[in-house]
Amino acid sequence: WNKMKGIWHGHAVLEFITASKQKILIDPFITGNPQTDLKVADCQPNYILLTHAHADHVGDTIKIAQQSHAVVIAIAELANYLQQQGLETIGINYGGSVVTEFGSFKMVPAWHTSALPQPNGNSLPLGAAAGFELHLDHRVIYVAGDTCLFSDMKLINHGHGVDLACLPIGDHFTMGPQDALLAAEFVKAKQVLPTHFNTFPPIQQDVQAFLQQLPADTGLNVQIGETFKF
What is the DSSP letter of 158? Predict the structure, then answer.
């Protein structure tokens, strides 16, 4: 088959384009993101997946979904909130899957908080943080979302390993590089894409040092906006 493509757009913004040209956009934080190559007006995904409700992950979801008519998949409470904003959503919860004609999206746990900042300065709690297990084009991709290291990562894809693990390495708000190395072991990742680093001062990391500590040929050294195949 034609190979599926992935693009890292900075921070936790991920895009996967299947062999059948379905576009899946994850955590589209574009406006206010100093690290992304994307422009909101250019985004035309079929699906938007959200790991949790923090502003640097929900990002421009509403605008993008309005212009592209993308279906938004998120944990039930966040999906319900976005549905009230007029979007087409599918709300799921841990262990639940959305099955499509080209693959499936399974929601898995993450250890992190989840609340959306409101104009009045308060935060609106919207469910819990999650990750995703994507089954696309005979590949399994683990998008950890914002999380610490936890031992149940060993259960991702029933312990059979994943083709790609997208793991936060920023520390401070998520696991740091040393914990991410162990996470890569836990999920038996054939390839690892580091995310969620260098966007803000507290999450500055030496990504090259992290990649060098991974087993040979597993770390994906990609630039922001660069397409990779796996």
Answer: G
